[in-house]
Task: inverse folding
């Protein structure tokens, strides 16, 4: 519903700003060539009609204007168009010959208009000239009380590979009818405004070649078994914000066992906290899944779990984990940020107990971590990136000696004031061996005589600190500066600390002399 509301607001704003525009009288479009192809950009020009453009125009953008109708032969002077963008206008009607002559057109954007998907808005035969079209975006047009686009309108798009469209289906309606079976090249479909009472084995029956299904935010009342089963060509599916019922998710994962699925996204599909059921991963083990995204699902933990050996990317971010320890030998990317793993990681040695690990990226940001065990990153020799940002760490207690391939260490947003000599020596060694870069942005670094060796070390290795010119430094009197000129700051501190050292030396001598005199007396 939030998605529908946002689309409505944008449409209202566009209508409020529209007024008559004469293209020939006030041509403010931008023209440029790229690799000999002419690009024309007329966005936000308050145009109400489609003008005449150079015959060799290849890319034409008329988005965010006030066009209400595409008349017959509207582009008869631009037959060389390869891409046409008419999104975010007020188009309510197209004629049968609106796209006459656009035989070379490959990409067409009609999204976010006022088309109601009827044969009056999109008449039969309108797509016949578009026999080279590979991409069509016609989503965010369908009002709540209107049916789906007529199948007969789509049958001529024989070369179409990717379609973005609104769908609305009651219990007895078919979304993609028999005419869609002509689209033998259609591999990807994305839903815009989407209301489906049932998703079953008839939903995609006439789209047998689909490899990618993007159904984010789709209101699916009931997901039936065998909706997507036995589709060996299926590679990617995104049901984020869609499959909210537990039984629906079970039936979906059961379908996946007989497909060629590689990537599954189920972000924000739970409304109450749960411990992720073991049966889910048992089903996934029988697939060849490589990437699994389960962020923002109120997950609180696992029962005994075994992940598919094929899994390379796992996203459990923005959940409620307080414990995580899994055998993930083949995983290369693990996202655990925005959980509550800090207390657990302070006490436990491993979050991965595999003796051989292929992990390259670990994200533990925003987990309330105060400190980490010394060998937390041992047995992970391929680690290239460690993200510990936005925690409450004040000292590096973990060992990176085995992380020979580490490229980036993110410690931004923590409580570091300075590094001790041992830490600086260890990091200096990694700067030379692996070319390590790191971030200390948004830490309360100290500018004092105590931290002067640390600041000098940073100055010497400043090329290894990401965005060092944005770092903050706090003096003993609580004044704060930004490292726009670290060298100047270090020089000032050296002078100040030298004077301070001289005063201490004089006082020390005076005290010593006094003690000698007193002793002699």
Result:
């Amino acid at each position: 519903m939030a998605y529908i509301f946002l689309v409505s607001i944008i449409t209202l704003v566009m209508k409020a700003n529209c007024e008559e525009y004469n293209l020939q009288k006030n041509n403010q479009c931008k023209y440029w060539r790229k690799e000999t192809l002419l690009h024309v950009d007329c966005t936000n020009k308050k145009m109400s009609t489609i003008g005449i453009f150079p015959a060799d125009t290849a890319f034409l953008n008329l988005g965010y204007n006030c066009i209400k109708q595409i008349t017959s032969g509207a582009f008869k002077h631009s037959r060389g168009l390869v891409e046409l963008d008419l999104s975010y206008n007020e188009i309510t009607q197209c004629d049968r010959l609106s796209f006459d002559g656009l035989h070379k057109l490959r990409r067409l954007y009609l999204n976010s208009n006022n088309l109601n998907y009827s044969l009056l808005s999109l008449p039969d035969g309108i797509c016949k000239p578009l026999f080279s079209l590979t991409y069509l975006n016609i989503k965010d047009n369908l009002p709540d009380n209107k049916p789906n686009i007529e199948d007969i309108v789509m049958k001529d798009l024989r070369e179409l590979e990717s379609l973005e469209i609104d769908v609305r289906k009651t219990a007895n309606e078919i979304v993609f009818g028999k005419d869609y079976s002509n689209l033998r090249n259609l591999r990807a479909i994305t839903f815009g405004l989407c209301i489906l009472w049932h998703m079953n084995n008839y939903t995609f029956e006439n789209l047998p070649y689909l490899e990618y299904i993007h159904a984010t935010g789709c209101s699916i009342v009931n997901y039936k078994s065998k909706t997507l089963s036995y589709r060996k060509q299926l590679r990617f599916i995104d049901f984020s914000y869609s499959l909210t019922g537990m039984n629906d998710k079970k039936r979906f994962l059961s379908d996946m066992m007989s497909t060629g699925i590689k990537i599954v996204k189920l972000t924000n599909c739970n409304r109450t906290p749960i411990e992720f059921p073991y049966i889910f991963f048992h089903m996934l083990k029988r697939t060849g899944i490589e990437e699994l995204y389960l962020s923002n699902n109120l997950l609180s933990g696992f029962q005994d779990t075994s992940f598919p050996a094929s899994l390379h990317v796992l996203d459990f971010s923005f959940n409620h984990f307080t414990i995580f320890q899994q055998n993930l030998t083949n995983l290369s990317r693990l996202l655990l940020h925005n959980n509550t793993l800090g207390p657990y990681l302070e006490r436990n040695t491993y979050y991965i107990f595999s003796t051989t690990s292929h992990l390259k990226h670990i994200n533990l940001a925003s987990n309330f971590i105060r400190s980490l065990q010394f060998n937390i990153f041992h047995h992970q020799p391929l680690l290239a990136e460690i993200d510990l940002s936005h925690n409450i760490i004040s000292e590096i207690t973990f060992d990176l000696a085995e992380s020979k391939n580490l490229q980036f260490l993110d410690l931004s947003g923590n409580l570091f004031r300075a590094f001790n000599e041992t830490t600086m020596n260890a990091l200096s060694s990694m700067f030379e061996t692996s070319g390590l870069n790191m971030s200390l942005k948004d830490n309360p670094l100290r500018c004092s005589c105590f931290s002067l060796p640390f600041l000098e070390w940073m100055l010497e290795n400043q090329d290894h600190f990401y965005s060092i010119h944005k770092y903050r430094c706090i003096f003993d009197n609580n004044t704060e500066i930004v490292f726009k000129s670290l060298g100047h700051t270090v020089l000032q501190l050296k002078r100040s600390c030298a004077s301070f050292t001289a005063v201490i030396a004089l006082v020390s001598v005076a005290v010593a002399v006094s003690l000698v005199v007193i002793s002699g007396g």
